[in-house]
């Protein structure tokens, strides 16, 4: 699939996301001042805020659930940047992401962030995702069921101030995020 075009970015700019307090913001307001790296993964917690600042970039994460679990998610993940919720999945749909519960296909090398333990391989990523949701739910029972669809895949997108997308990677399976080092190289951000 190709890069989102200017029309898609313009449509996306009009959609609302919710911040950690449930306040609606247009996606356009998030991407207007800096080149923005839009991602759907918390392995980005390893990106140093000062490296983003030096490169004049902003990194945001957008999830498909409701806004209520965001603060607990920040606490658990260690991610220092803004996280938003897109419970309607409008951005996910506009940017061409898919839903799937498939893990890394046989013969394809796993990404560095993907667990390779015997247990994980035996039960698959779907069970690991369910377990993570369950264990988070034990700590924050009020968030159970608010994490969004576990089958919704995301991706990574780099959007310029001019409304152009310069990089897009859409997940094809549950372990298909772009490696953080590769994404930061594409964005011109020093890593680690």
UniProtKB/TrEMBL annotation:
It comes from the Eukaryota. It comes from Antrodiella citrinella. InterPro entries: PXL2A/B/C (IPR032801), Thioredoxin-like_sf (IPR036249). This is Redoxin domain-containing protein. It holds the Pfam family AhpC-TSA_2.
């Amino acid at each position: 699939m190709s890069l989102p075009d200017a029309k898609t970015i313009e449509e996306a700019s009009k959609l609302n996301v919710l911040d950690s307090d449930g306040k609606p913001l247009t996606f356009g307001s998030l991407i207007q001042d800096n080149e923005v790296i839009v991602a759907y993964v918390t392995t980005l917690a390893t990106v140093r805020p000062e490296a983003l600042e030096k490169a004049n970039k902003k990194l945001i994460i957008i999830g498909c659930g409701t806004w209520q679990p965001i603060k607990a998610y920040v606490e658990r993940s260690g991610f220092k940047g803004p996280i938003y919720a897109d419970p309607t999945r409008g951005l996910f749909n506009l940017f061409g992401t898919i839903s799937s519960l498939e893990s890394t296909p046989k013969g394809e090398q796993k990404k560095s962030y993907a667990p390779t333990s015997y247990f994980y391989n035996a039960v698959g990523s779907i069970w690991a995702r369910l377990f993570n949701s369950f264990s988070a739910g034990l700590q924050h029972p009020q968030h159970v069921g608010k994490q969004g669809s576990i089958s919704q895949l995301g991706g990574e997108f780099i959007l310029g101030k001019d409304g152009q997308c310069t990089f897009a990677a859409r997940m094809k399976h549950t372990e298909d995020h772009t490696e953080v080092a590769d994404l930061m190289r594409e964005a011109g951000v020093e890593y680690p």
